[in-house]
Amino acid sequence: MQKIYLKEMLEEEFESFFKQSVEAYSSDLSIEENILIDEARAAAEKQFAQLLPNKITTPENFFYKIYDNDKSIGHLWFSIRKNFGKERIFICDIFVQESQRGKGFGTFALKWLDSKAQELGFLEIGLHAFAQNTKAQSLYRQLGYKLTSVYMKKNLSKEANNL
């Protein structure tokens, strides 16, 4: 029988999570901003250092591993953010191993977070998704997430306009 669950990340597991999360974010940032991967990695490392100055012990940040039976297949990092006088949960990173996607693990983790947020007294959960991550956006919409803003850009270089 399949047993899916989330468990708090241990301090000794954090460094591998951190490296994987920075690399994934760097890759997405490189694609989205059309910059070299080294530039994206430097930006990601700087942003992560600001978000997590005390790594796993940074206040108001929570790290969980997603398990299928007793095998770790992903992670969930969320924080408490204050916007316009309201506190809400913000999903900083959710990841499911490529070979495990489409099997309901992401859905399970997000529904688990719904319950956890309510248990903690929060009424909203927010997140950011890169434009190219259409599968994740579809999942978020299916689970009730709504667009709250859209970031757009236009490339004015001659190469982009000659396509």
Record the SSE blueprint:
Elements lengths: L3 E5 L2 H23 L3 H15 L9 E8 L2 E13 L2 E11 L8 H15 L5 E3 L6 H9 L15 H4 L2
Parallel strand pairs: 4-5
Antiparallel strand pairs: 1-2, 2-3, 3-4
Helix pairs in contact: 1-2
CATH superfamily: Gcn5-related N-acetyltransferase (GNAT)
**Strand segment count:** 5
Question: Which regions contain 5 or more consecutive residues with pLDDT less than 50?
Answer: none
Oligomer designation: single chain
Tell me the name of the CATH class. Answer: Alpha Beta
Distance between the termini: 52 Å
How many domains in all? Answer: 1
C-alpha geometry: globular
Rounded mean pLDDT is 93
Known CATH architecture: 3-Layer(aba) Sandwich
How many separate helices?
Answer: 5
How does the helix and strand content classify structurally? alpha+beta
Q: What is the helix content? A: 40-55%
What percent strand?
15-25%
Q: H/E order of the elements?
A: EHHEEEHEHH
Give me the CATH fold name.
Answer: Aminopeptidase
